[in-house]
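Journal club prep, notes for RB
We'll compare a predicted complex against what the paper describes. Inputs for the 1-deoxynojirimycin case:
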Amino acid sequence: MSRNKKDWYRRMSFYQIWIRSFYDGNGDGIGDLYGVYEKLDYIRSLGVDGIWFSPIYPSPNADFGYDISDYKNIHPDYGDLAQFQKVLDKAHAIGLKVIMDLVVNHTSDEHPWFLESRKGKDNPYSDYYIWRDAPNNWNSLFEGKAWEYDPVRKQYYLHLFAKKQPDLNMDNPKVREEVKGILRFWLDLGVDGFREDVINFISKKEGLPDGIPFLPAANGLPYYKDGPHIHEYLAEFRKVCEEYDCFQVGEGPFTSVKSALKYLSGPTKSLDMMISFDHMMADCFLSEYIPRPFSLRKLKKAFSKWQYTLAGKAWNALYLENHDHPRVISRYGSEHLYWKESGKMLAVSYLFQQGTPFVYQGQEIGMTNIRLSSIDQYVDVVSIYNYHAFHQKDPEKKRMHRIHLASRDSARTPVQWDDSRYAGFSEHKPWFAVNPNYKKINVAAEEADPDSILAFYRKCLALRKHSKTLLYGTYREYFPKHDKLYVYERAYGEIRYLIICVFSHFPVKLQLPTVYAGKKGQLLLCNYPDPEGSENGMMRPYEARVYRFRVK
Ligand code: NOJ
């Protein structure tokens, strides 16, 4: 893989901000850019090198920012462009890059383009969206049918997500020019790149053929995922980005690693990294709403498939949490018995793979899922739709249990800064429920504890940043069939790192790959305070260890 001037992102790690719940700086109960400004030093102290902002643009919030009504401005709840510039300048001054969310598969139905487009066919915006006299059989990913009748235009518009998120018609060159204008606007302000929302969906197959009839969601997927013109359109956007020193990470729902390679390498390379989903399905089938027992083998298979397939050709985006998934300790770890151990072990399980890691706000202190008692207390469009649309005959307890397992709202509770009222997030009642565990799980408590999850994240991020082996070394997995241990190695020249993670509530016999037998490695990291505490070659529940070996 050739290295070029833009490879800075490979040495980096990012912190993701979902601003509404990050930190309230102006006392109205809503997180904002004033709050971000105050917390920039905290973010930098983690050892990350960049911030990804989930959308902070004006939005009616039908999908909390992913329904944009003005691409070139800041939501008044969060501040204004002047405050954004202040944040950006300070971020840069302390060594943090800033990337924005680019959401151009759809807009809000309150975007002026859509308001104009509704008016009818003789209008400069009439072909900005996908209008039809009769819908096909596609279902949306969020809210039932993918088509909504508009009484003004007397036609149906396509929305792959919520009703209030009409899909843009990317086949229209004017729409692509708008996208380029958005890129330029933010790049000229000084941002360093973009995370590109559902970017593999933006080109739809001509004629919009009917999809698989019996699937309740995403049945048109074969006709809009990696669509016919996707690489041409992305090449146009890439060209703009190349005028700047700009980094692009795409989000690719349902993308196979093979098709990801087309975006990430070779003549169609248009993105630097791809956010994949395979490893987020180790405890579910296709979506968290179809739960399955957690399978470590499934998780490892997904991790290794991406690591091996991209090796030497492209670069991975590494994550375990973001605003779209419930908290990972509550899923793949042990929320109650081994909260701290599993929180740290999960960090080790992904931060040392080859790629650029993302840490989601609150993940670094081990925040967990919230369990609100009634669906009326939830705000996420997907949670509400799924609750009402499916399993209506199940008892209420079971229906709520499913929401507790799957809801995106669990990742969107206010960040727990201290143990004061409202978890120190705001002095005002927050816009959304605070997790009641904030007295125990909060930044202030963990800052005071050298053995905290927070302290451990700092150690891991520093270790990765300063090791050529962890940054660039090759990846190899051992014992792929083991259902309690995840063992992987990173190798660069003579230096090898061996990473061992226990996914079990019970002790597990440590197994060392034969190449390491009899060799003395240096223990660099362990998630228990007494690394020597494991006895008779047994590893403790949710233990994680990182060894460094020199192998001739
Ligand atoms: C992916 C985003 O991460 C998610 O939050 C959003 O709801 C959908 N795309 C639609 O924009």
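Talking point for the session: DSSP finds 14 helices and 20 strands in the chain.
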